[in-house]
Design brief:
The complex is a heterodimer of chains A (323) and B (372).
Chain A (H helix, E strand, L loop, with lengths): L1 H32 L7 H19 L2 H25 L4 H24 L22 H4 L5 H9 L4 H19 L1 H11 L1 H6 L4 H27 L11 H11 L4 H21 L3 E2 L3 E2 L2 H5 L1 H10 L21
Antiparallel strand pairs in A: 1-2
Helix pairs in contact in A: 1-6, 1-7, 1-10, 1-11, 1-12, 2-3, 2-4, 2-10, 2-11, 3-4, 3-10, 7-8, 11-12, 11-14, 12-14
Chain B lengths: L11 H26 L4 H13 L2 H26 L7 H18 L5 H30 L3 H23 L22 H7 L12 H18 L1 H11 L1 H6 L4 H28 L10 H11 L4 H24 L6 H16 L5 H17 L1
The chains are: A mainly alpha (323), B mainly alpha (372).
Chain lengths: 323, 372
């Protein structure tokens, strides 16, 4: 039974840890499908975490924090668009600028407003999102199998966990089943053809970036107002890049990107589980080396050992309307 | 709305001096706004920055010490950028380069001092280059995006070095995660030693002989990129890969060589930090210099002649910035990380914001003068 409980807790943490990655990967799909590279997921996630924590603290309501995080992330997406769509600046440089700017600004402002440590004040329970117990979870706990899956694995997560998994089919539907999604993809594959059809390439890219900003805000709010009760320095810890790797590995497709995010989540859950555990023949693996596992996995996945990823055709190229 | 300018009529000083200065001014205005939001007076901060970096001899020496670091990491980013590669991994390459310096210096410290220095430089370069090799190989052969792989290698380098510093090469007599000190006879002479020769007494100064190495590295990069066949091939791959292949130039080879040199230059940072200042590996010694190199290179338009003054400017910001954090309780060093981000934004991504307007303004004025 202990083995089953282990599996259950590992699955439970996998679902939770994958959440910010899933939001970020879905956000990345919108930007990159429209032809705009988005390495700034990392910075935006950090910005959302900071703004959500500060907003929840000042207004005493996590939903206000989330709303402010959405506004902040959409603004950053618009800044990225202003630099790389309107002014045709280098998209990667724009992302690097946003990431470095946000790493500095969030910590600097947290230190200026809340003291030198660069932490925001700890949120009380009514200032943050709490775990949701699904209906009948307690009643079903003792039922074999169903109890394990329903009460121990599916129930008791933060609202963002459920939203993340709901967002995947919605993103799939929008990108692949609606005319809006068709246009987004077309703008990323062949912008001049779309332009010829009378659709505004720039406006489409801005719209895709706006959706990108909304989705990534959820990832950041999850970090600072749900799993943690405050913001701390560089709390996104590379998750934006992991999500991007998951998206590339998932070939810019919501379903496969979800699988890759779960794989990352599982590795991370396993990594936490293995810390300090004595393994047969190997002994205890040093914590620092175990912590590097998700990053090594990212490199391995990007090396494309499971087939070559083909990016949207027009990605990274600013669109220049013919004169 | 858009202004069309004949590029050939734009004088060089407009596109290479006026436009970058306008962009820098915009970035500084936005940065002043941040300082204001943080609750301090931006004008007072500027005064402190200038005093801290120029006001006294030790402060100025600190400015040049920071400049040394930024020249190395700026050159590192620039070399890769000429091949259109974004080497964001300077931080990790410098960290691993430090391992190279330390291992060489501690094992060969019995040799004549100048030989030890040369070997340490080689160690820094080779270890830094080696850390850049896997991302380079994956980019060249598998198309794995170098931005993500180099960032991941920063994280991996950090984990690896902390592991080594805690479990393997730590000075076991001490609590902190650092190695034993290198023998004193192989430390690089500092500005303080030089001043003493001329009978000048100054307090501590981290500025050391690596400043000259930074100047040498700048010449090396200039010669390599603009005066050799390899530099030409590398720039050809960066400008137009298809045309380069058609001309018989291998993009694979050039991507890997560009990244190796880039990683090696980033590794040289540890000559300054370890052979010159700390004299041992300290946990986290690259302290963000690798990332600042990106801003330095973009501001310096990826040319050594531009990188040197840009590195100096960031030296002023760093040294003056520490004066600010000392006097202004609301400002931490992270404020200057944000300033770097703003500078990258305005001198990199938004470099075309006012370029057409500025260029057409000067072209029109010059034309009018010719007609008159």
């Amino acid at each position: 039974m202990e083995f089953l409980a282990d599996i259950a807790s590992l699955t439970n943490s996998t679902l939770r840890i994958s959440t910010p990655l899933i939001f970020a990967a879905m956000a990345g799909i919108f930007a990159e499908r429209s032809g705009v590279i988005d390495f700034s997921l990392e910075g935006k996630m950090l910005m959302a975490a900071f703004v959500a924590a500060v907003g929840s603290y000042f207004f005493g309501n996590p939903w206000v924090g989330l709303l402010m995080a959405i506004v902040a992330c959409v603004s950053l997406s618009m800044l990225h668009g202003f630099a790389s769509v309107t002014h045709k600046g280098d998209q990667v440089v724009s992302c690097v600028a946003i990431n470095i700017l946000i790493i500095g600004l969030t910590t600097a402002l947290a230190a200026a407003w809340f003291g030198q440590a660069g932490l925001t004040p700890t949120l009380t329970d009514d200032q943050r999102f709490l775990e949701i117990t699904l209906p009948f979870a307690d009643a079903l706990r003792d039922v074999p199998i169903i109890g394990l899956i329903y009460s121990d694995i599916l129930s008791g997560h933060y609202i963002f966990v459920y939203l993340a998994y709901i967002s995947v089919p919605i993103v799939y539907w929008v990108v692949f089943k609606t005319s809006f999604g068709l246009r987004v993809r077309a703008v990323g594959e062949n912008p001049s053809a779309v332009d010829t059809a009378g659709i505004n390439v720039f406006a489409m890219r801005y719209k895709a970036l706006a959706i990108n900003g909304v989705l990534i805000a959820f990832a950041g709010a999850h970090l600072s107002t749900a799993v943690n009760a405050n913001f701390f320095r560089e709390m996104s810890a590379g998750r934006g890049y992991l999500a991007l790797a998951a998206m590339i590995f998932g070939k810019w497709h919501p379903k496969t990107a979800l699988v890759a995010c779960l794989l990352f989540g599982f590795t991370d859950a396993l990594q936490i589980r293995l810390q300090g555990v004595e393994l047969p023949t190997i002994g205890t693996i040093p914590v620092q080396l175990i912590q590097a596992v998700p990053y090594v996995l990212t490199v391995v996945l990007l090396a494309g050992f499971v087939g070559k990823a083909i990016a949207p055709n027009a990605i990274g190229q600013p669109y220049i309307k013919e004169r | 709305m858009s202004v069309v300018v004949d590029k050939s009529k734009v004088p060089w000083w407009v596109s290479n001096l006026i436009v970058p200065l306008v962009n820098l001014t915009l970035a500084l205005i936005v940065s002043a706004l941040f300082i204001f939001i943080a609750g301090e007076n931006p004008l007072q901060a500027i005064k402190l920055i200038i005093y801290g970096s120029f006001g006294y001899i030790e402060g100025f020496a600190y400015t040049l010490y920071y400049t040394t670091n930024f020249v190395f990491t700026g050159l590192a980013f620039a070399v890769a950028f000429h091949c259109r590669l974004f080497n964001i991994g300077g931080e990790g390459q410098a960290y691993i380069g430090g391992l190279g310096v330390f291992l060489v210096a501690i094992n060969f410290s019995f040799l004549p001092v100048s030989v030890v220095w040369l070997l340490a430089i080689a160690g820094a370069f080779v270890f830094g280059a080696a850390w850049a090799f896997i991302p380079a190989y994956l980019q060249a052969k598998r198309g794995s995006h170098i931005v993500i792989t180099t960032i991941m290698f920063n994280f991996i380098a950090s984990s690896l070095m902390v592991y080594l510093l805690v479990d393997i090469i730590r000075d076991m007599d001490q609590m902190g995660p650092h190695t034993v000190a290198l023998p004193e006879n192989i430390w690089l002479p500092t500005f303080k030693d030089l001043a003493a020769l001329f009978g000048m007494k100054i307090r501590y100064s981290p500025l050391n002989l690596s400043f000259l190495l930074a100047i040498a590295a700048s010449f090396f990069v200039w010669f390599l990129v603009w005066k050799t066949k390899w530099g030409y091939e590398m720039r050809a791959v960066g400008h137009n890969t298809q045309a380069a292949i058609y001309a018989g130039i291998s993009p694979y080879k050039n991507i890997i060589i560009a990244m190796l040199i880039s990683g090696g230059l980033a590794g040289l940072l540890s000559i300054n930090e370890i052979l010159g200042v700390h004299h041992k590996i300290v946990s986290g010694f690259p302290a963000g210099y690798g990332f600042t190199g990106i801003a330095v290179a973009l501001m310096g338009r990826n040319h050594p002649i531009g990188i040197f003054p840009a590195a100096f400017l960031f030296g002023i910001l760093y040294q003056g910035g520490s004066e600010v954090t000392f006097d202004m309780p609301n400002i931490t060093r992270y404020m200057f990380v944000a300033v770097q981000g703003v500078i990258i934004l305005f001198s990199g991504a938004l470099e075309n914001l006012f370029r057409p307007q500025i260029e057409s303004f000067f072209v029109n004025r010059l034309n009018r003068r010719v007609e008159a």
